[in-house]
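Intended use. Records like the one below are meant for learning the mapping from a protein sequence to its folded structure. Do not use them to infer anything beyond what is encoded.
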Amino acid sequence: MADEDSPLSTFVQSIRRDLNCVSDMDRNVRRNSLQRLHKRLTQKQTLPPTPVLQEAWDNDILPILVKSVSDNAESCRELAVQLLVFGIQNSIVVEQTMALCLSPLIERIGNLPMKEDSEEVRLLLIQLVKSLVLSCSLEMLSTNLEPIVQILKSSLADQYHEIKKEACDVIHSVIGRTKNFTQQSLESLLKASIPNLKHPHSKVRLATLQGINMIMKCNVPADTVSALLIPVTEALVFDHSERVRKYFLESVAEWICCGFEESNDNDDHVNLSIFRTKLSHLLPLLICGIFDASKEIGSTALALAENIGHVYTTCATNRRHNSGTADDAADNEMEYHLLLPSPFKERPGRTCCIMVQDFLEELIPHIKNSLQEWAETTKLYGARLLLAVLVFAEQQIAPYLHSIIPTLCSAVGDNNVCIAKLIVASSHILGWQTSPSSWMSQIVGQVSSSNASSVQVANGLVIMSGLLYGTKKHTGNDGLAKEVLKALINLNLQFNSHASVHNQTLAILQNLLKVFGANYSTCSSDILFILVQIQCFGSNLSQKQAVADIEKALADVMGFTSVRSLYESQAELLLGMIIADHETWSTHVHGQALFHAFLQKISNLAGPYLERLLPVLKGCVQPERDPSLRLKLLQQINFHQILDELFEIEELAVWWYSLASTVLGQIILPCGVWRVGKIGAAIRHAAMVAFGTFLRMNLCSQHDLETHLLSDQVLPVVLSCLEEDYYVDVRIVTCHVLQELLRISGNSLTDKQRGDVQKALQKRLDDSSDGVRLRILPAISLFFRTMPSSYSDASIRSFAANILVHMDDSNVEIRESVFKALQVCTSLRPAILEDLIKSKRDQHEKTEYCDRLLDQAASLQIMEATNA
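Structure written out for the chain above:
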């Protein structure tokens, strides 16, 4: 028993009343007592020496404070815990404190749900645990690890974020002092920490990572890491906080190397085995970070990977030695550097490449599975990992092409632009690392599959284009080029309305030029054929520019001075390819569209081939062929389409002139024959438009036209079209045809033909359409101008009388045109017209035109009399 006058007794007596009041029934009394104790114990100048305080603390103060930790009043509990923390920090020995505190700590915060309902008190309690951990002996700490782990597990699940961070700090403190944990304890701590990696507060996530980092230093089994940690930490690669991402990557590097020692001991192979196991699980996380959005973090990840690669190749005495890394040929290095994505500034180190190559067997399936997941972050993780692996794998990736190519084709169509860009960049690297012969057949088969949709085909073409873009210059051969071009020809026919297929086709052609160089010349006809395909199915401005660029590049490769010369050299071969199957053309086959586009392309170079084209045209307009095809073809011959453009080219006039009889008799006129139905009417309209253009451009000689007129091949068809009931436009365009006929061969008509024409002209002047009436009047003028002198006066008088009626028409244009036509007639037969007009003048409401015609007739008769 202490002496009553001793410092210990004196000190204890000074606080005895307050110690006793801590157990009072009144909470206010208890609180006030604790406050006084707190004030007394925190004033260092009034405290006894440390040994005296230690004994008083262990025997008198500590038991009462420990009991107050479970006080019903929150304020009392809070003061008691604060005093306990103070006591621990000022004690020499805390074993007694730890022994007494652990039980109430477990009671208050060691189980879920926690008995302590105050966040502030729970935070103080976990801080109390931290003070105990830092102050107790190592032996005492090792003995009490299990209850401490229990408290930490509960605190990590606390809803208050500050408590979570404090618990992580305690983990750091505990493991910093001892690693003598059971595997079960480590696993339970790891399980409790992992959910906090998804906490919305970045500071909590960072603190959790720091705690997990300490746990991993206790040599957690690789299987546990793979099962618990890897699936969750993949998301940390894309954490919103740069601090979290950077610390995570640094932690991964530590986890990989943790416990591995470079040695020549007999157990080196055991260490290496553990190292390899960790690498297989953690290496993907590290190299995925190389393509972080932050360049600084990406560079950090790359440096960490290089360091680990050095450790691996230095210590892995049983690793696979190979020569799989690429040569550093100076002529290729610059080109490769342009392909390498940031943060790579040069070819990666050899040691890191060897390390990644040794794990390709595990990495490739992991990448494939990640890209097939539905979660966007998982797919982005897979895309980044794929690009990194391809950079490090170099030529050793070749055996895995059968798995990588389909994966690329599937992933490039992702809606996430970042993923798609990474996949395209991967195709560039893959193209550089491998030869075209190793993947060409596979990618061609991928895009040529009969079950592939237009989207799948376009995706496959994106990858093909990317592979070719990355391929070294002038490394291909014409056999591979022909294989690609054959597939492109079929695809552009099958998916002719899909702009994405056309765009990727153009990109492939551009890249093929780079890869195959001079070898491309043997495939020039196939390339031009594809370009014609794309143009015939309609192309926008960017596609037209791309086509022009490819044509120019191809012309340069083949040594031509112009694109025109290029097409001129290939025109005959192209024409043969396009019209080879013309007998099978229909509205559902696109041969005729190709034909159209080809004729547009060769333009004024078409002359030598026109005769070869006539059988094709003739075959397509036969009555037994698809009516829609006949209509389509004629529309291509009319003024608005390709042959009209060819008619306008002066250089081709001589070619058309020599073929006029065939064009007229075997192509145009057969289509003007009346057939029932709307399509039949449309065909007649197209035929008459083509006929009118043909005559207007003087592409038919008078002799050829008169030959057909004499054989009655022309006039019956034209007059029949003038009688068109259903389609007024047929009558309108036929008026133009009749006008051109009269201009060229009007004076060669027989009397019967002239009589038939006169009846048709007269009937059209009474047409229900003013458009037809206006357009027939120029033909009437030509009829008068070309009539022979032997033509009977009675016929002229009858025809003129019918025309004269319309000179009083309500339509001013018609009145003017009728007047002009009668002026022509008056100039040729003034006496007949004078007599006729005088007899009809009084019947006209407006006599102005009549008077002018009478003046003209009188003047002409006076002139004739004078001349006589």
